[in-house]
Amino acid sequence: MRVADKNRDRRDTLILALVCMVCQLALAPNIGIGNGRANFALVFTACVAFNAGGRRGVLAGFFAGLVFDLSTTGPVGLMAGCCAATAYLMGQEGRNRMAGELAASMAEFSIAALIVSLIYHLAMLMVGQSSSLLDVILLRTLPTAFLTIIAFLPFAWYYSRSVGGGSGLSLGGRRRGGGSHLSTRGL
């Protein structure tokens, strides 16, 4: 039986948001390949969309994208729209998807990361922040998608191992009723 614990779900989503925001502001600008940087706003969006879906995923994607937009020199609203649309598309198939379909979730996220990176960097070309189409594809889109996929791996692994319902952010092998049990799920 799955018991909804909204306060726990909100708290766990807030913790995930803070971790991704710190990584986006402190880690991503310092680690790059070419002109590509990891997009932790998209990582957060995917985690919420795969685990909660629906309106919650779209709102999380919009606000994560807005934080991304406000922390970069790009147009405000571009990544917010990309993340919201991505969350809508990824969150349609059900909740707690990474626990049951890790490979499919990774494949879907990889495609989404590539498409979002391409759209974002093409828009940056249109506003004059990129020099050429070759720069957009080879030095920005591909490295950004690659680094974002690599950044998503620990989060995907964590969510695939999580036990419990709700947002999939269970911090240990405890049942919702308070008792503990041994889990043989990962064996």
What do these coordinates show?
Helix content is 66%, strand content 2%. The protein is globular and about 55 Å long. The protein has seven helices and two strands, in the order H-E-E-H-H-H-H-H-H. Strands 1-2 form a two-stranded antiparallel sheet. Helix 2 packs antiparallel against helix 3, helix 3 (54-71) packs antiparallel against helix 4 (78-90) and helix 6 (102-126) runs antiparallel to helix 7. The protein has helices at 6-27, 40-51, 54-71, 78-90, 97-100, 102-126, 133-161, and strands spanning 32-33, 36-37. It is mainly alpha-helical and 187 residues long.
Tally the helices: what do you get?
A: 7
Structural class: mainly alpha
Q: Strand fraction band?
A: under 5%
What is the mean predicted local confidence, pLDDT? 84
The dominant shape is: globular
Q: Tell me the distance between the termini.
A: 22 Å
* Major sheet characteristics: 2 strands, antiparallel
Strands of the biggest beta sheet: in what spatial order? 1-2
Radius of gyration: 17 Å
Oligomer category? single chain
Helix content: 55-70%
The H/E string reads HEEHHHHHH
Q: Which stretches of 5+ consecutive residues score pLDDT under 50?
A: 163-187
Please report the total strand number as a whole number.
Answer: 2
